[in-house]
Amino acid sequence: MRKPDLRSMSEEELIFAVKEMGEPQFRSKQIFDWLHNKNVKSFDEMTNLSKKLREKLNENYKISNIEIVEKRVSQKDGTAKYLFSLEDDRLIEAVLMKYSYGNAVCVSTQVGCRMGCSFCASTIDGVERNLSAGEMLSEVYEIQNDIGERVSSIVLMGSGEPLDNYENVIKFIRLINDEKGLGIGQRHITLSTCGIIDKMQMLMEENLQITLAVSLHAPNDEIRNEIMPVSRKYDFDSLMLACKEYSDKTKRRITFEYAMIKGVNDSSECAGQLARRLRNMLCHVNLIPVNDVEERNFYKSSEQTILNFAEILNSKGIETTIRRKLGSDINAACGQLRKGYRASRR
Questions:
Q1: Reading across the β-sheet that carries 283-289, which strands appear in turn?
Q2: Residue 105 burial (10 A CB sphere; 0-12, 13-18, 19+)
Q3: Where are the domains of the chain?
Q4: Could you say which architecture CATH assigns to the domain 67-345?
Q5: Residue 120's pLDDT is what?
Q6: Are 87 and 134 in contact (CB under 8 A)?
Q7: Of 125, 58, 62, 118, whose CA–CA distance to 91 is shortest?
Q8: In sequence order, which residues have a C-beta less than 8 Å from that of residue 149 and are 6 or more positions away?
Q9: pLDDT per residue over 145-201, tens digit each?
Q10: pTM above the 0.90 mark?
Q11: How many whole angstroms separate alpha carbon 148 and alpha carbon 291?
Protein backbone atom coordinates (compact mmCIF):
# COMPACT_ATOMS: atom_id res chain seq x y z
CA MET A 1 0.00 0.00 0.00
CA ARG A 2 1.36 3.40 -1.03
CA LYS A 3 1.91 5.89 1.77
CA PRO A 4 0.00 9.19 1.57
CA ASP A 5 2.14 12.22 0.74
CA LEU A 6 2.17 14.77 3.56
CA ARG A 7 3.29 17.60 1.25
CA SER A 8 0.09 17.16 -0.76
CA MET A 9 -2.16 17.51 2.28
CA SER A 10 -4.19 20.60 3.15
CA GLU A 11 -3.93 21.97 6.68
CA GLU A 12 -7.27 20.33 7.52
CA GLU A 13 -6.00 16.95 6.30
CA LEU A 14 -2.82 17.39 8.34
CA ILE A 15 -4.85 18.15 11.45
CA PHE A 16 -6.83 14.95 10.92
CA ALA A 17 -3.66 12.90 10.34
CA VAL A 18 -2.07 14.25 13.54
CA LYS A 19 -5.18 13.51 15.59
CA GLU A 20 -5.30 9.98 14.15
CA MET A 21 -1.82 9.44 15.60
CA GLY A 22 -2.98 10.67 19.02
CA GLU A 23 -0.98 13.89 18.84
CA PRO A 24 -2.10 17.42 19.82
CA GLN A 25 -3.38 19.63 17.01
CA PHE A 26 -0.53 22.17 17.19
CA ARG A 27 1.79 19.52 15.76
CA SER A 28 0.06 19.94 12.39
CA LYS A 29 1.19 23.59 12.22
CA GLN A 30 4.77 22.56 12.97
CA ILE A 31 4.68 19.88 10.27
CA PHE A 32 3.10 22.31 7.76
CA ASP A 33 5.92 24.79 8.44
CA TRP A 34 8.60 22.14 7.91
CA LEU A 35 7.03 21.05 4.62
CA HIS A 36 6.16 24.39 3.07
CA ASN A 37 8.63 26.89 4.50
CA LYS A 38 11.71 24.90 5.37
CA ASN A 39 11.18 22.37 2.53
CA VAL A 40 12.60 19.40 4.43
CA LYS A 41 13.06 16.13 2.57
CA SER A 42 12.79 13.73 5.51
CA PHE A 43 11.02 13.45 8.85
CA ASP A 44 14.35 13.28 10.68
CA GLU A 45 14.87 16.97 9.83
CA MET A 46 11.75 17.94 11.81
CA THR A 47 13.79 18.52 14.94
CA ASN A 48 11.06 20.09 17.10
CA LEU A 49 9.01 16.88 16.88
CA SER A 50 9.62 13.99 19.26
CA LYS A 51 11.53 11.00 17.96
CA LYS A 52 8.45 8.85 18.54
CA LEU A 53 6.27 11.12 16.39
CA ARG A 54 8.87 11.22 13.63
CA GLU A 55 8.94 7.41 13.64
CA LYS A 56 5.12 7.28 13.40
CA LEU A 57 5.18 9.74 10.52
CA ASN A 58 7.81 7.69 8.73
CA GLU A 59 5.78 4.50 9.19
CA ASN A 60 2.54 5.96 7.84
CA TYR A 61 3.42 8.78 5.46
CA LYS A 62 5.99 10.00 2.97
CA ILE A 63 7.26 13.36 1.72
CA SER A 64 7.26 13.74 -2.05
CA ASN A 65 10.72 14.71 -3.23
CA ILE A 66 12.15 15.53 -6.63
CA GLU A 67 15.75 16.00 -7.73
CA ILE A 68 17.39 18.33 -10.23
CA VAL A 69 18.81 16.20 -13.07
CA GLU A 70 19.86 19.02 -15.35
CA LYS A 71 19.76 22.81 -15.33
CA ARG A 72 20.31 25.14 -18.24
CA VAL A 73 20.62 28.92 -17.87
CA SER A 74 20.09 31.25 -20.81
CA GLN A 75 23.01 33.52 -21.58
CA LYS A 76 20.54 35.89 -23.22
CA ASP A 77 18.01 36.61 -20.48
CA GLY A 78 18.82 34.51 -17.38
CA THR A 79 15.88 32.13 -17.90
CA ALA A 80 16.64 28.75 -16.28
CA LYS A 81 15.22 25.42 -17.44
CA TYR A 82 15.13 22.61 -14.89
CA LEU A 83 14.80 18.92 -15.59
CA PHE A 84 13.58 17.07 -12.49
CA SER A 85 13.54 13.37 -11.67
CA LEU A 86 10.56 12.06 -9.70
CA GLU A 87 10.66 9.21 -7.19
CA ASP A 88 9.60 6.75 -9.91
CA ASP A 89 12.42 8.06 -12.19
CA ARG A 90 10.01 9.81 -14.54
CA LEU A 91 11.09 13.24 -15.77
CA ILE A 92 9.38 16.62 -15.70
CA GLU A 93 10.42 20.18 -16.49
CA ALA A 94 9.96 23.61 -14.93
CA VAL A 95 11.17 27.03 -16.02
CA LEU A 96 12.36 30.00 -13.96
CA MET A 97 11.73 33.36 -15.63
CA LYS A 98 13.29 36.50 -14.18
CA TYR A 99 11.37 39.75 -14.53
CA SER A 100 11.82 43.23 -13.09
CA TYR A 101 8.87 42.57 -10.76
CA GLY A 102 10.17 39.22 -9.46
CA ASN A 103 10.73 35.55 -10.19
CA ALA A 104 8.08 33.51 -12.00
CA VAL A 105 8.07 29.72 -12.22
CA CYS A 106 6.30 27.77 -14.94
CA VAL A 107 5.41 24.37 -13.49
CA SER A 108 4.40 21.08 -15.07
CA THR A 109 1.17 19.42 -13.92
CA GLN A 110 1.55 16.04 -15.64
CA VAL A 111 4.32 13.79 -16.91
CA GLY A 112 3.78 14.39 -20.61
CA CYS A 113 0.39 15.38 -22.01
CA ARG A 114 -2.48 13.66 -23.78
CA MET A 115 -4.01 16.69 -25.49
CA GLY A 116 -2.09 16.09 -28.72
CA CYS A 117 -1.56 19.73 -29.79
CA SER A 118 0.52 19.41 -32.93
CA PHE A 119 2.88 22.35 -32.22
CA CYS A 120 3.92 21.17 -28.71
CA ALA A 121 6.85 18.84 -27.98
CA SER A 122 5.53 17.72 -24.58
CA THR A 123 2.61 15.83 -26.12
CA ILE A 124 4.56 13.74 -28.62
CA ASP A 125 4.89 10.70 -26.30
CA GLY A 126 1.48 11.14 -24.64
CA VAL A 127 0.79 11.35 -20.91
CA GLU A 128 2.42 9.01 -18.39
CA ARG A 129 0.71 10.13 -15.18
CA ASN A 130 -0.60 13.06 -13.17
CA LEU A 131 1.58 14.94 -10.72
CA SER A 132 0.49 15.21 -7.10
CA ALA A 133 0.05 18.61 -5.47
CA GLY A 134 3.20 17.88 -3.47
CA GLU A 135 5.25 17.19 -6.60
CA MET A 136 4.07 20.46 -8.17
CA LEU A 137 4.96 22.33 -4.98
CA SER A 138 8.37 20.66 -4.97
CA GLU A 139 9.10 22.14 -8.41
CA VAL A 140 8.70 25.61 -6.92
CA TYR A 141 10.48 24.84 -3.64
CA GLU A 142 13.49 23.23 -5.34
CA ILE A 143 13.94 26.21 -7.66
CA GLN A 144 13.64 28.59 -4.72
CA ASN A 145 16.28 26.62 -2.82
CA ASP A 146 18.54 26.54 -5.87
CA ILE A 147 18.51 30.29 -6.54
CA GLY A 148 18.23 31.42 -2.92
CA GLU A 149 15.47 33.87 -3.86
CA ARG A 150 11.72 34.02 -3.40
CA VAL A 151 9.35 33.02 -6.18
CA SER A 152 6.57 35.60 -6.52
CA SER A 153 4.36 34.24 -9.31
CA ILE A 154 3.31 30.90 -10.75
CA VAL A 155 2.31 29.84 -14.25
CA LEU A 156 0.64 26.45 -14.69
CA MET A 157 1.74 26.20 -18.28
CA GLY A 158 4.48 23.55 -18.33
CA SER A 159 4.01 20.00 -19.56
CA GLY A 160 0.48 18.70 -19.14
CA GLU A 161 -3.06 20.05 -19.22
CA PRO A 162 -3.81 21.43 -15.73
CA LEU A 163 -7.56 20.83 -15.94
CA ASP A 164 -6.89 17.20 -16.89
CA ASN A 165 -5.41 16.89 -13.37
CA TYR A 166 -8.10 19.03 -11.77
CA GLU A 167 -8.17 17.90 -8.13
CA ASN A 168 -4.41 17.98 -7.62
CA VAL A 169 -4.07 21.34 -9.38
CA ILE A 170 -6.75 22.99 -7.23
CA LYS A 171 -5.06 21.61 -4.11
CA PHE A 172 -1.70 22.96 -5.36
CA ILE A 173 -3.17 26.43 -5.90
CA ARG A 174 -4.71 26.54 -2.42
CA LEU A 175 -1.51 25.28 -0.76
CA ILE A 176 0.84 27.69 -2.54
CA ASN A 177 -1.59 30.53 -1.81
CA ASP A 178 -1.75 29.64 1.92
CA GLU A 179 -0.34 32.52 3.96
CA LYS A 180 1.30 30.04 6.33
CA GLY A 181 3.31 28.68 3.38
CA LEU A 182 4.68 30.68 0.44
CA GLY A 183 1.56 32.85 0.41
CA ILE A 184 1.66 33.59 -3.32
CA GLY A 185 -1.38 35.73 -4.12
CA GLN A 186 -3.98 34.19 -6.41
CA ARG A 187 -3.73 37.16 -8.77
CA HIS A 188 -0.12 36.10 -9.30
CA ILE A 189 -1.14 32.61 -10.43
CA THR A 190 -2.02 31.83 -14.05
CA LEU A 191 -3.61 28.56 -15.13
CA SER A 192 -3.45 27.65 -18.82
CA THR A 193 -5.93 25.27 -20.44
CA CYS A 194 -6.55 24.17 -24.02
CA GLY A 195 -10.26 24.52 -23.33
CA ILE A 196 -11.79 21.63 -21.37
CA ILE A 197 -15.17 23.25 -20.95
CA ASP A 198 -16.69 21.09 -18.21
CA LYS A 199 -13.62 21.65 -16.01
CA MET A 200 -13.65 25.38 -16.78
CA GLN A 201 -17.21 25.46 -15.47
CA MET A 202 -16.08 23.69 -12.30
CA LEU A 203 -13.17 26.11 -11.95
CA MET A 204 -15.39 29.18 -12.07
CA GLU A 205 -17.29 27.84 -9.03
CA GLU A 206 -14.08 27.60 -6.95
CA ASN A 207 -14.17 31.35 -6.19
CA LEU A 208 -10.51 31.77 -7.13
CA GLN A 209 -8.93 35.03 -8.28
CA ILE A 210 -6.36 33.40 -10.54
CA THR A 211 -5.87 34.35 -14.19
CA LEU A 212 -7.26 31.87 -16.71
CA ALA A 213 -5.28 31.56 -19.94
CA VAL A 214 -7.03 29.70 -22.77
CA SER A 215 -4.84 28.21 -25.49
CA LEU A 216 -6.82 29.24 -28.55
CA HIS A 217 -4.26 29.20 -31.39
CA ALA A 218 -6.89 29.53 -34.14
CA PRO A 219 -9.85 31.76 -35.05
CA ASN A 220 -12.16 28.94 -36.17
CA ASP A 221 -12.94 25.23 -35.89
CA GLU A 222 -11.35 24.35 -39.23
CA ILE A 223 -7.82 25.36 -38.21
CA ARG A 224 -8.25 24.49 -34.53
CA ASN A 225 -9.40 20.94 -35.35
CA GLU A 226 -6.25 20.48 -37.40
CA ILE A 227 -3.77 21.55 -34.73
CA MET A 228 -5.68 20.88 -31.47
CA PRO A 229 -7.56 17.55 -31.22
CA VAL A 230 -9.42 18.78 -28.12
CA SER A 231 -11.37 21.11 -30.42
CA ARG A 232 -13.17 18.13 -31.94
CA LYS A 233 -14.86 17.59 -28.58
CA TYR A 234 -15.23 21.21 -27.52
CA ASP A 235 -16.06 23.30 -30.60
CA PHE A 236 -15.13 26.95 -31.00
CA ASP A 237 -18.61 28.39 -30.36
CA SER A 238 -19.02 26.37 -27.15
CA LEU A 239 -15.57 27.44 -25.97
CA MET A 240 -16.31 31.12 -26.60
CA LEU A 241 -19.57 30.82 -24.65
CA ALA A 242 -17.77 29.11 -21.74
CA CYS A 243 -15.11 31.85 -21.70
CA LYS A 244 -17.75 34.57 -21.64
CA GLU A 245 -19.52 32.81 -18.76
CA TYR A 246 -16.22 32.47 -16.90
CA SER A 247 -15.27 36.14 -17.20
CA ASP A 248 -18.80 37.29 -16.33
CA LYS A 249 -18.90 35.08 -13.23
CA THR A 250 -15.36 35.77 -11.93
CA LYS A 251 -14.99 39.36 -13.22
CA ARG A 252 -11.50 38.28 -14.28
CA ARG A 253 -10.07 39.04 -17.70
CA ILE A 254 -9.24 35.94 -19.75
CA THR A 255 -5.94 35.71 -21.61
CA PHE A 256 -6.11 33.98 -24.98
CA GLU A 257 -2.81 32.36 -25.92
CA TYR A 258 -2.20 32.29 -29.67
CA ALA A 259 0.88 30.47 -31.01
CA MET A 260 1.90 31.99 -34.33
CA ILE A 261 2.57 29.13 -36.75
CA LYS A 262 3.93 29.96 -40.20
CA GLY A 263 1.36 29.42 -42.93
CA VAL A 264 -1.18 27.83 -40.60
CA ASN A 265 -2.91 30.49 -38.48
CA ASP A 266 -1.00 33.72 -39.06
CA SER A 267 -2.78 35.36 -42.02
CA SER A 268 -4.46 38.76 -41.95
CA GLU A 269 -7.75 36.94 -42.55
CA CYS A 270 -7.17 34.90 -39.39
CA ALA A 271 -6.50 38.10 -37.43
CA GLY A 272 -9.70 39.73 -38.66
CA GLN A 273 -11.77 36.65 -37.91
CA LEU A 274 -10.27 36.35 -34.42
CA ALA A 275 -11.07 40.00 -33.70
CA ARG A 276 -14.70 39.44 -34.65
CA ARG A 277 -14.98 36.37 -32.41
CA LEU A 278 -13.52 38.15 -29.38
CA ARG A 279 -15.51 41.37 -29.71
CA ASN A 280 -17.27 42.44 -26.47
CA MET A 281 -15.36 39.91 -24.35
CA LEU A 282 -13.27 40.81 -21.28
CA CYS A 283 -10.01 39.46 -22.67
CA HIS A 284 -6.45 39.98 -23.76
CA VAL A 285 -4.58 38.20 -26.57
CA ASN A 286 -1.01 37.02 -26.08
CA LEU A 287 0.74 36.20 -29.37
CA ILE A 288 3.45 33.57 -28.97
CA PRO A 289 6.29 33.09 -31.46
CA VAL A 290 5.94 29.30 -31.51
CA ASN A 291 9.01 27.15 -30.94
CA ASP A 292 9.90 25.11 -34.01
CA VAL A 293 8.80 21.46 -33.70
CA GLU A 294 10.58 19.70 -36.54
CA GLU A 295 8.78 16.39 -35.90
CA ARG A 296 5.55 18.14 -36.92
CA ASN A 297 6.99 20.46 -39.61
CA PHE A 298 5.69 23.50 -37.74
CA TYR A 299 7.75 26.67 -37.68
CA LYS A 300 7.28 30.10 -36.15
CA SER A 301 5.88 33.01 -38.12
CA SER A 302 8.18 35.82 -39.17
CA GLU A 303 8.58 38.79 -36.86
CA GLN A 304 6.84 41.08 -39.34
CA THR A 305 3.89 38.70 -39.70
CA ILE A 306 3.46 38.65 -35.92
CA LEU A 307 3.63 42.46 -35.74
CA ASN A 308 1.02 42.78 -38.51
CA PHE A 309 -1.27 40.30 -36.73
CA ALA A 310 -1.00 42.25 -33.48
CA GLU A 311 -1.65 45.55 -35.25
CA ILE A 312 -4.89 44.22 -36.80
CA LEU A 313 -6.18 42.97 -33.44
CA ASN A 314 -5.29 46.15 -31.59
CA SER A 315 -6.91 48.27 -34.32
CA LYS A 316 -10.14 46.31 -33.76
CA GLY A 317 -10.09 47.07 -30.03
CA ILE A 318 -8.67 43.68 -28.92
CA GLU A 319 -5.82 44.34 -26.48
CA THR A 320 -2.89 42.33 -27.82
CA THR A 321 0.71 41.80 -26.77
CA ILE A 322 3.56 39.71 -28.14
CA ARG A 323 5.20 37.39 -25.64
CA ARG A 324 8.86 38.08 -25.12
CA LYS A 325 10.69 34.94 -26.23
CA LEU A 326 12.66 33.63 -23.25
CA GLY A 327 15.23 30.85 -23.07
CA SER A 328 15.48 30.29 -26.82
CA ASP A 329 19.11 29.19 -26.43
CA ILE A 330 18.32 26.51 -23.80
CA ASN A 331 15.30 24.67 -25.27
CA ALA A 332 12.95 26.31 -22.78
CA ALA A 333 9.78 25.31 -24.62
CA CYS A 334 7.53 22.67 -23.04
CA GLY A 335 8.89 19.18 -23.44
CA GLN A 336 12.04 20.05 -25.35
CA LEU A 337 14.62 19.44 -22.60
CA ARG A 338 12.91 16.27 -21.33
CA LYS A 339 12.62 14.90 -24.85
CA GLY A 340 16.26 15.68 -25.65
CA TYR A 341 17.51 14.14 -22.40
CA ARG A 342 15.54 10.93 -22.97
CA ALA A 343 16.84 10.69 -26.53
CA SER A 344 20.46 11.09 -25.34
CA ARG A 345 19.97 8.41 -22.68
CA ARG A 346 18.60 6.00 -25.28
A1: 67-73, 80-85, 91-99, 102-107, 153-156, 189-193, 211-215, 254-260, 283-289, 320-322
A2: buried
A3: 6-60, 67-345
A4: Alpha-Beta Barrel (3.20)
A5: 74
A6: no
A7: 125
A8: 103
A9: 999 999 999 999 999 999 999 999 999 999 999 999 999 999 999 999 999 999 999
A10: yes
A11: 30
How far is 157 from 8, CA to CA, in rounded Å? 20
AA identity, residue 188? H
Closest CA to 191 of 218, 164, 152, 231: 164
pLDDT in tens, 211-252: 999 999 999 999 999 999 898 999 999 999 999 999 999 999
Spatial separation of the C-alpha atoms in residues 127 and 283, rounded to whole Å: 30
Catalytic residues: 93, 334
Per-residue burial over 112-146, b if 16 or more Cβ lie within 10 Å, else e, is bbebebbbbbbbeeebbebbbbbbbbbbbbbbbee
Distance of CA 84 to the CA centre of its chain: 15
The CATH topology of domain 6-60 is DNA polymerase; domain 1 (1.10.150)
Phi and psi at 151, nearest 5°, equal -90, 130
Strand pairing report for 189-193 and 211-215: parallel
